Amino acid sequence: MLAVFEKTVANSPEALQSPHSSESAYALKDGSLATHFSSVNPNSVTLNFGSSGFVAYSLDNTDPRVPRLFTVVDDIFCLFQGHIENLPFLKQQYGLNKITNEAIIVIEAYRTLRDRGPYPVDKVVRDFHGKFAFILFDGAKQTVFSAADADGSVPFFWGNDAEGHLVLSDNTEMMKKGCAKSFGPFPKGCFFTSSGGLRSFEHPKNELKPVPRVDSSGDVCGATFKVDAETKRESTKMPRVDSSQNWAGHI
After folding, report:
1. What is the phi/psi pair of residue 232, to 5°?
2. Residue 246 burial (CB < 10 Å; 0-12/13-18/19+)?
3. Polar residues: which segments have biased composition (predicted)?
4. Span 12-65, pLDDT tens digits
5. Are 163 and 88 in contact (CB under 8 A)?
6. Please, are residues 20 and 180 in contact by the beta-carbon 8 Å criterion?
7. pLDDT tens digits along 159-186
């Protein structure tokens, strides 16, 4: 799976930018990364969101232990990889039918946060038990919501291209093509939102601090993020969509 979002839609941490990158990689410019993904995965599907970015999905080279899913509901797009072990419980919790899959669960959880809050975002993501990584884009609200499980069980990476656009993928070769050296593993046990940035759902009261990631050449290439046990932050909730302020400003 692959997603690229314009920097005004999802502003990723500056720490992901490598100071030692000798080449400029562009993920949105001229549609080159989307074209490359399609050439490598001839049976793939790419959805273009205009200047906001795109998502691309393929079943090629799928690991059966962490299958990929792609679902669209009411202009909300979700790429999901892995599986949720407590799916029956979540179906009941969200009032969904038996044919519901993990991607639909994520979309419904997001819509609950957006429309029926306030709920702590970390609590909602923490309720997902299993091996997973997902990328969600709300086309109407121009909002990105992404997360990875507490063990980092699914290969999942994020980074910046030369223009500061956010790139997310399960494939390191796609990350190198779109970001050069400016990428790293998506932090396990964490979620990212357009306006709230990166948060830990395991340790929601703590800040996250970047740690430079060094490659085999000794160059800094992006960063990993660790929970800062010394720094606390306030818990956040999402107001309902009809409240005086948009939910996205509170995550």
Report:
1. -105, 155
2. middle
3. 242-251
4. 888 888 876 556 789 998 888 999 999 999 889 999 999 999 999 998 877 788
5. no
6. no
7. 999 899 999 999 999 999 999 889 999 9
Rounded Cα distance, 231 and 60, in Å: 42
Nearest to 182 by CA among 62, 23, 53, 37: 23
CB 175 within 8 A of CB 159: yes
**Could you tell me the strand order of the sheet in which 157-160 lies?**
45-48, 53-57, 2-5, 166-169, 157-160, 183-185
Contact (Cβ atoms closer than 8 angstroms) between residue 236 and residue 211 = no
Answer whether 0.90 is exceeded by the pTM: no
Closest to 10 measured CA to CA, from 169, 142, 178, 172: 142
Specify whether the CB–CB gap between 100 and 72 falls below 8 A: no
| Distance (Å, whole) CA 2 – CA 33 | 9
* Close Cβ partners of 19 (under 8 Å, ≥ 6 residues apart): 220
Give dist(CA 92, CA 41) in Å, integer: 36
DSSP states along 192-250? EETTTEEEESSSTTEEEEEEEEE-TTS-EEEEEEEEEEEEE----BPPPTTSSS-GGGG
The pLDDT value recorded for residue 213 is 86
152-157: average pLDDT: 94
Q: Is 131 helix (H, G, I), strand (E, B) or coil?
A: strand
Helices (H), the chain: 32-40, 87-94, 102-116, 121-126, 172-179
Record the tokens describing residue 34, joined without a space: 């989307």
Residue 30: what pLDDT? 85
Residues found in the chain: 251
Closest C-alpha among 243, 49, 34, 233 to residue 143: 49
DSSP 237: B
